[in-house]
Amino acid sequence: MNxxxxxxxxxxxxxxxxxxxxxxxxxxxxxxGVLNEDDLRDYCNPNGxxxxxxxxxxxxxxxSTGSLGHGLSIAVGQAYAETLxxxxxxxxxxxxxxELQEGSTWEAIMMAANLRLPNLTVIVDNNDxxxxxxxxxxxxxxxxxxxxxxxxxxxxxxxxxxxxxSLVTALRISDGVRPHAVVAQTIKGRGVSYMENENLWHYRSxxxxxxxxxxxxxxxxAP
Length: 223
Fold this sequence. Notes:
Elements: E1 13-16, H1 22-31, H2 37-41, H3 71-84, E2 91-96, H4 103-114, E3 120-126, H5 135-138, H6 145-151, E4 155-160, H7 164-171, E5 180-185, H8 208-217
Parallel strand pairs: 1-2, 2-3, 3-5, 4-5
Helix pairs in contact: 3-4
């Protein structure tokens, strides 16, 4: 995103609608100096300020999210406000494929096209898992996702969500008229053998042995 988003004043807006993915967002905010490493050490501790879902008021967090289906509506409102101000600010919003089960998500998709918001880009993390089952099992007719966005008046493209260059190319697409959707094909738990495509890890935390194995498989030294 550093190659796509404008970070100077006025800065582009980023919303993590799939709030349970906030841990990577926290790490990036530490890298940018917005948060500090003490914040990470206190993650999910009673005295810390970083929760399991992002909360508005924490530096770098544009909105409280995690209740699936709400984040995109906020992003649409933010993008529309920027157009009314004739601002160059763009809004980027990451949603889960599970959020495509929510009616409010499709209302937001329809409204974004009706309002003609080319400053809005949505990234769908399409790993085929929601909290309890595969999306393709419980909601098979949501596919093909990119075609659904196009039918609602968006531009849309599929890409490899694990390929940085592919993502950057997809995120830069804009016809200057319509909002754009990037459907990122991903594998849940990719890179850790015992986590890949295992929905158990949507909820479980690794024990010490599993944690060290995961670090080694990702190319890091175990502590």
